[in-house]
Amino acid sequence: MKIIKTLLNIVFFGFSSLVLAQAEPMDRPSWMTDAVIKGIMGMNLTESQRGPFREHLSECLSGIQADVHKVTKRGGVDLKKKIERANKYRWRDFESKMQQLLSEEQIPAFDRYLKIQRETVRVVLSSPDSERIRWN
């Protein structure tokens, strides 16, 4: 029975990731690139880790979005640096929460994923259309 449940989970998760990977770019948030999806898959998250991962990532990205809005609304000098500083805090918080959640074997894959995710968000935020970014 346990083997059947495990196989069903593998098939379901594999199918879900395949559907996500084949989705049109318009169906995905702007930060969800193919490289990010591969990074998430490479972590081999367990069922009990997936929920907290989604929650922590959502919290991080929502915070980044709110910080960007707040900084640009306030205006001032060197907005790019202020946004980068605010983002750094959000990424560190996400990383520390995930470090507690992951096993030692998953940490190198998480570090690779995080590097890709941070770069993707940085590129998205630096695009000329960053005001119209689809975050979810």
Report on the architecture of this protein.
This protein is 74% helix and 0% strand. It has 136 residues and is mainly α. The protein has one domain.
Question: Features of this protein?
Answer:
elongated, 0% strand, disordered C terminus, mainly alpha, 136 residues
How do you describe this structure in short?
It is built from five helices and no strands. The protein has helices spanning 2-22, 34-42, 47-74, 79-101, 107-125.
What gap, in angstroms, lies between the N and C termini?
37 Å
Proportion of beta-strand residues: under 5%
Structural class: mainly alpha
In the predicted model, the low-confidence regions spanning at least 5 consecutive residues are: 4-9, 131-136
- As a percent range, the share of helical residues equals over 70%
Note the total helix count. 5
H/E element sequence: HHHHH
- Integer count of domains: 1
Q: Give the overall average pLDDT.
A: 80
Count the E strands.
0
**What would you report as the Rg, rounded to the nearest angstrom?**
17 Å
Largest sheet: none
What is the general shape? elongated
Secondary structure layout:
Layout: H1 2-22, H2 34-42, H3 47-74, H4 79-101, H5 107-125
